[in-house]
Amino acid sequence: MVGTDPPEAAGSSSGQQQVQPTGPIAMKHKVIVSRGHPPNNKKNKVVPAKTGDAGVQKETATKQKEKEAKKKKDSTDEIRNRASPSRFFALNGELVADQRIAILKMDLGGLLNIGACTMPVDLSQWVMKCYDHVKSELVIPNRGKIPVDAESVSRVWGLPNSGLKVCYEMKMDIIKAINEEYGFPGTNAPEKTAWCKMIKDMNGAADDRFLRAWAIVAFDCFLAPTTGLKVSPRCYPAVNDIKLLPRTNICQFVADQIRVAFSALGNKKSVCCCVFHLVMLYLDSLEVDEVISDCNPRVDAWDSSLISKVKKKDRISPGVFGKLQKKRKIGALLYGLCSEFEESMAKFV
């Protein structure tokens, strides 16, 4: 009918009819309306977050900090000792009296009476970080330096400290001969478990054959430890003529092996050497208000209980030590004089 206006759409403020949206658009429309804003209001437009927004910046900063923290942690990871002397200690625990006496006569008795089969991990890691392979010494913050040389090995372990250089290399003829002597034909190295079992099956024999086999374990598991499951035949030449071993400079060999292992440390953060010596040397260099034997070699004075007590007194914070003072040099000099006097008297008698 002319002059009649069309009916207004419900809820519309204008005079024009509006089409109600359907489907997903309707859902969006309802949400917007429920918030009290018209559908065409600019406030309802979804604006993508910009990289400069505070929330995004905070998240980015957090991830960056986590990345830097991980990088810092990776760069300061503790040095690990990859070698374990547990197999050597287990073998020593099963030796009979005659075998131990034979080892003592070879001037290797310092390897028998180790009062602690393990060293505290945190103390070991801290001591390893103090080792300077360039100068071959322990550098203790605000406490001084402790030489890690042949003399220190002799003082702690009482091993031979003069004579021939240790022959530590692959010699196929010697490897084959020793393997065949002990029932392992060929040049392939036997497994350590089989080698130690072979020694146990000697039924208490204390002859040169036993001494050579035991010395191989001493080198392979303690003096120059390896991580493989098989015996390292590099030490075979050193013990081939077992009677020459007391006239071989084992002390210099141990000190050299420690230096070589730390020289090759790089990014591996792990070493394979006689870390036991570093820890024992450090502990025995401290001024301690405990009753400690003045025996010789020094390893005989330490057991797990004493190590635990001294460690506790030397601790500054978790993983950090060096609280106790270092012994005066005169103590080491007196020890050297006493050792020389004992050796002279033994030769005289």
Widest sheet: strand order?
Answer: 2-3-4
**For the CA atoms, what is the radius of gyration?**
36 Å
**Number of β-strand runs:** 7
Please outline the major beta sheet.
Answer: 3 strands, antiparallel
| Percent helix | 40-55%
Q: How many helices does DSSP assign?
A: 14
Strand portion, in percent? 5-15%
Distance between the termini: 145 Å
List the uncertain runs.
1-16, 25-37, 70-75, 330-335
Q: What's the overall average pLDDT, rounded?
A: 82
Shape: globular
Supply the helix-strand structural class: mainly alpha
The ordered string of helix (H) and strand (E) elements is HHEHHHEEEHHHHHHEHHEEH
Protein architecture, described:
The chain has 349 residues and is mainly α. The strands form three sheets. Strands 2-3-4 form a three-stranded antiparallel sheet. Residues 1-16, 25-37, 70-75 and 330-335 have low confidence and may be disordered. It is 46% helix and 5% strand. Helix 5 crosses helix 12 (275-283), helix 6 packs across helix 11 (250-263) and helix 8 (192-200) packs antiparallel against helix 9 (208-223). The protein is built from 14 helices and seven strands. The chain has helices at residues 24-34, 54-75, 86-92, 97-105, 121-130, 150-157, 172-181, 192-200, 208-223, 236-239, 250-263, 275-283, 304-314, 329-348; strands spanning 80-81, 131-132, 137-140, 144-147, 270-271, 315-317, 320-321.
